[in-house]
Amino acid sequence: MLFCGTAQAISISPYRNVVTVHSQNHQYRATSVPYSSINESRWGKTDVYDNRTSDLLYTIPECMVEGYLLISDDGRTVAHIIDNAYRSQDTSSYITHEINLYRNGEVLRRLTLDELLQCDRCEDFLLFNARQEEYIGGGEYISTFAHRTSTIEKFVSDHPIFLYHDTVFIYTSTYKLIKLDLLTGQFTEAEFNTFTLEQLSAMPTIERIEERFKNADEYASLRNDQEGYSVENALAKALKMKDDKNEKDKDGTYNHERYKYYPVHAWLRISRDGAVSIIQLTNREHLPETELRNAITALDYQFPSTLPNGIDIWYQEITASLRKSNNRVAAKERKLEKQREEEERQRRWEADTINGFYIPRNIEECFHQLDTLLSPTDIKPSEITAAGRRPSSSTSD
Predict the structure, then answer these.
(1) pLDDT at 126
(2) I need a labelling partner for 44 at 20 to 30 A (CA). Which of 58, 125, 197, 272 fits?
(3) Ramachandran class of 157: left when φ > 0, alpha when ψ lies in -120 to 50, beta otherwise
(4) What is the Cα–Cα distance from 40 to 253, expressed in whole angstroms?
(5) On the CB side of 137, how many CA atoms lie within 13 Å of its CA?
(6) What is the spatial distance between Cα 333 and Cα 82, in angstroms, rounded to a whole number?
(7) Which of 173, 180, 226, 182 is nearest to 78 (CA)?
(8) pTM of the predicted protein model
(9) CA 75/CA 103 separation, integer angstroms
(10) Rounded distance, CA 61 to CA 315, Å?
(11) What CA–CA distance (Å, rounded) separates 28 from 72?
């Protein structure tokens, strides 16, 4: 048997792990280290060592802590199999449903869910799981199997992946068995019942070691500042702006209703030695880009104290919502912003097309569109016509 894991949505756990796995001949090992508090993040690294000499052979610049991490008997190929519930368009930062193969530290092949299950825009999970959730009351559910679930289906639900030397056997949600060759990166399909329960039970195990540590916060904080002095406060001060969005003005009106605010969001790469770089910056309202970047990187960030030695890089995010310091200027900007919002609302209300999608003006236009889209055989006599009337029956008693 190998090890089992359950699909999950994007999440932040109280603890994270440094994971080490060994090849089945015990000559090589891969150690994966996360660089982010988000479980599904790719940020991190995976080092491959020769157990006989303890030499570092190569490093893959991706985290493979979640899911299944495998290494071939020659130490040259590393496989990472992930099957998360979370689906992201940002595949450069988040891992969802896929198999990634690496040869000597370089990407050999990336297999998507669509390729593996041979479908277009698959909405399924990759791995087989016959379990179902049964509601037992009080907001509680239990995991059960249907009455006719076979013994081997129950076994595979807990252990959907097996490794025998350099071949990975993957039981899929489409009731197939995928055989993946770690040396070539090629895969073939086989019948679900290729192996008996006795054969699966006799498969060799993979040694997986997890070193747990307390997770760091998702958001960056500043070093040695007074309590309550946040990144947002410091950024506002550096840019000579204000960060009082959720405060009230003298007349009791919340500031976010009275003044225009500039939202800022960034992902930072923070090193233990104090170096900071911006990985991704969202500056939707176009604050001066150079000035904003300089202000962000000039702040003195606290490297998370919960991280163990050996983790010298961590990715954290910052958010801020800032306004001009001059109340009159900020209020005028908000007035203009409201005018543009109203103009856009009116434009969308009157438009017949939004983002390439036709918007009917009334119910009659809806049926006209249906008449053009449907074939005559698809339109039943009982349906309402474009004129909004049901057709009269041509039959008599």
Answers:
(1) 83
(2) 125
(3) alpha
(4) 41
(5) 0
(6) 47
(7) 182
(8) 0.76
(9) 9
(10) 14
(11) 8
Please list the alpha-helical segments (H only) found in 266-361: 289-298, 327-350
C-alpha–C-alpha distance, residues 111 and 95, integer Å: 12
Hey, what amino acid is at 217? D
Which residue positions in the chain have pLDDT lower than 70? Answer: 1-10, 84-97, 119-124, 224-228, 378-397
Residue 60 host element (H or E): strand 55-60
In terms of Cβ atoms closer than 10 Å to its own Cβ (0-12, 13-18, 19+), residue 332 is middle
335 phi, psi to nearest 5 deg? -65, -45
What residue ranges do the domains of the chain occupy? 15-214, 231-348, 352-397
Residues contacting residue 305 through CB under 8 Å, at least 6 positions apart: none
Query: Which amino acid is located at 58 in the chain?
Result: Y
pLDDT, residue 71, reads 96
> Token pair for residue 279?
């990985």
Contact between 48 and 103 (Cβ < 8 Å)? no
Q: List CB contacts of 350: < 8 A, sequence separation 6 or more.
A: none
User: What's the DSSP call for residue 378?
Assistant: G
Cα–Cα dist 280/264, whole Å: 11
- The CA-to-CA distance between both ends of the chain, in Å, stands at 71
Q: Which residue has the tokens 């070093």?
A: 223
Q: pLDDT of 138-183, one tens digit each?
A: 888 888 888 889 999 999 999 999 999 899 999 988 889 999 999 8
User: Whose structure tokens read 């203009």?
Assistant: 336
Reading the block at residue 250, the tokens are: 């003298």
Q: Residue 55's closest CA among 36, 73, 71, 75? A: 75
pLDDT of residue 116: 75
Cα-based angle 44, 48, 50 (whole degrees, multiple of 5): 160
Question: Where do the H-state alpha helices sit in 187-319?
Answer: 197-201, 231-238, 255-258, 289-298
